[in-house]
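Quick question about two entries, pasted in order.
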Amino acid sequence: MNQLLLPLLLMLVVAIPLVMGTRKQKKAAAKQQELLSSLAPGDRVMTTSGLYASVADATADTTIDLEIAPGVVTTWLRQAVREKIEPVVETDEDTLDTDEVVEEPVIESKDEERVEEKSGAQIAPPLEHGKK
């Protein structure tokens, strides 16, 4: 009995993670299949290559038409869709009021004149490259 205990424990140590990993993969595959079958026109999606688009037509079994820009529709394999993206909703905090004017600080040139007087150096005008 003792001779069979060690091989049995080794098999359990190897088999349990394999079974758990397989279950996790099956759940992920089922979730992805559910996503692909639930796509409808107007949904925002991201492809596996990172392209954001809107679903234009999802009637075909293996392909899907994605609108990547207004009036630009491309055909993709359904498996290329990675996930559904929620549309971005702008809040009042995100938008800047056009009434607000941001003032930049004014740099006084008196400090520059004092530096020139102390050092005795003159500032040369900037070089103009490319002019002949």
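Here is the second entry:
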Amino acid sequence: MTMALSLYDAFVPSCQQILGGVANLIDKAEAHAKEQGLDDAELIEARLAETMWPLPWHVRSCWVHSAFVIDLLPTGEFSPDFTDIPGSWDAMRAQIAAAQQGLASVTPEQLEAVADQTVGFVLGGKRLMEFTGQNFLLSFSQPNFYFHATTFYDILRMKGVPIGKRDYMGVPRFNG
């Protein structure tokens, strides 16, 4: 028997799970900085490579590619918003909380209503690509979301924060 998977089920619960993991990683990173006597900036300004974004940009990108994108889908255009990069542990927590709150208010019907709608990716005022809402979420935003959550984790591991895969994953959706 084939079970249909809604767009909501394919996107929202997994984002919520990983956002919970990112919130945990923020707490562990801050605790590590305090325990090691590090200036917060040593972690907050860290990046995997000189040409990559530092830690807070990845938090912002997790918000952009989860709750923010869902808010923009009905408009038919998506343009990433990087105007409010969180500069502290508390600001990062607030950004993750905003993403979690945004996702908590999404309904399956809301996503199904935009699944077949055309969504343009706009950057620098130019419409660069077009997708259906479903394809935009599953082939553009979802991979970006995981990339930035993973990069956040990787930066912390590189800087010696004692974390593992369970910290990244958040709480899985167990039976019962």
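Reply: The CA atoms of residues 9 and 108 lie 8 Å apart. The helical segments are 7-36, 40-44, 55-72, 89-104, 108-114, 133-158, 165-169. Hope that helps.
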